[in-house]
Write a structure and sequence with these properties.
The protein is α+β, with helices and mostly antiparallel strands. It has three helices and four strands; from the N terminus they run ββαββαα. Strands 1-2-4-3 form a four-stranded antiparallel β-sheet, covered by helices on one side. β1 (17-26) and β2 form a beta hairpin. α2 (99-111) packs antiparallel against α3. The two termini are 21 Å apart.
Length: 160
């Protein structure tokens, strides 16, 4: 069986960043899948499910309400390995194209206070598994260590 593309990336050299994971076609529309890598795979602890869940709720809420991008958002959700998230957008984009959007989204998460959107029994299948303080910490760290001085090595997958 052939390896899927995401398993061909050298995860030992992959840094936190924003990467184009793949581009697909749905009819005449290009769908760009981004790898929003928050922690360094196999070098630092993965995110716990509570903060992954909170980032998912806050990120999806932000993206689907962001005036300039909301009509292009198809999906925002976690990677099974708990080191990052996938963002699927309609359109043909490069990583650098969404850096301002990611800065805005992670600032929203870092500064968010109050009840996490959708964190209620009637809205979510596991509403108690949330960790807003850790989400705010991770968002702040990502803003400072990745987005604040983003370089080519954090925008393009490492070559073999």
């Amino acid at each position: 069986m052939e390896k899927i593309t995401s398993f061909t990336i050298d995860h030992l050299r992959l840094l936190p960043g924003i990467y184009v994971s793949r581009k697909d076609h749905a009819g005449d529309t290009v769908v760009t899948t981004f790898d929003i890598r928050i922690t360094r795979p196999n070098y630092e602890p993965v995110m716990n499910t509570a903060e992954v869940h909170t980032i998912e709720h806050l990120g999806a809420t932000f993206l689907r309400n962001q005036e300039d991008w909301k009509d292009r958002v198809l999906y925002f959700g976690p990677m099974g390995c708990r080191t990052g998230f996938y963002l699927l957008l309609t359109g043909d984009y490069e990583s650098v194209d969404i850096v301002p959007l990611m800065k805005e989204m992670f600032t929203f998460m870092r500064d968010f206070e109050g009840q996490v959107p959708g964190a209620a029994a009637k809205d979510c299948g596991n509403y108690l598994d949330m960790n807003l303080p850790m989400t705010r910490y991770l968002a702040d760290r990502y803003l400072k260590e990745v987005l604040g001085q983003i370089t080519e090595e954090r925008l393009v997958y490492p070559e073999d």
